[in-house]
Amino acid sequence: MIAFRFPEGVYRWELEKAGRRVTVDPTGPLCVNDHTLLEAASAGAGLACVLRPRAADWLADGRLRPVLEDWCPAFPGLRLYYPSRRMTAALRAFIETLRLDQTTFNEPPLARKL
Q1: Measured at the alpha carbon of residue 47, what is the angle toward residues 109 and 74, in degrees to the nearest 5?
Q2: What pLDDT does residue 112 have?
Q3: Which of 21, 40, 81, 107 sits a CA distance of 20 to 30 A from 91?
Q4: Are residues 48 and 79 in the same domain?
């Protein structure tokens, strides 16, 4: 498994199948914090947990393939609360961007090399 480090710490994989939830601490010698995650998985360094839209090109051209799809929960979507009916143009544009991108996040996120 290839770990991905955020500023807050290593991302723990969240898997779900038939209502059973499992959190996995990725173990292994490789931990990255940038785009090299996909490159490492493509080179055979291990499994990478990424959102499908981020790996779309890699999946489309065969450098990666999805695995553990039946353990990948669908992303339920984003929720946004704003306390006023008055909305700035910037907020309106941000919300519209989220609406357009939301459908791409409902696919399983795991990928590995063929």
Answers
A1: 15
A2: 46
A3: 107
A4: no
**Is residue 113 in a domain?**
no
Residues 22 and 79: beta-carbon distance below 8 Å: no
Which is higher by pLDDT, 106 or 3? 3
The answer to whether residues 14 and 29 belong to one domain is yes
Give the pLDDT of residue 108.
46
24 and 48 fall within a common domain: yes
Q: Do 57 and 81 belong to one domain?
A: no
Both tokens of 100, joined, read 């357009």
Question: What integer pLDDT is reported at residue 103 of this predicted model?
Answer: 52
Cβ atoms within 10 Å of 96's Cβ, excluding its own: 10
What is the residue range of 60's domain? 1-73
pTM for this model (two decimals)? 0.65
Does position 88 have pLDDT exceeding 80, yes or no? yes
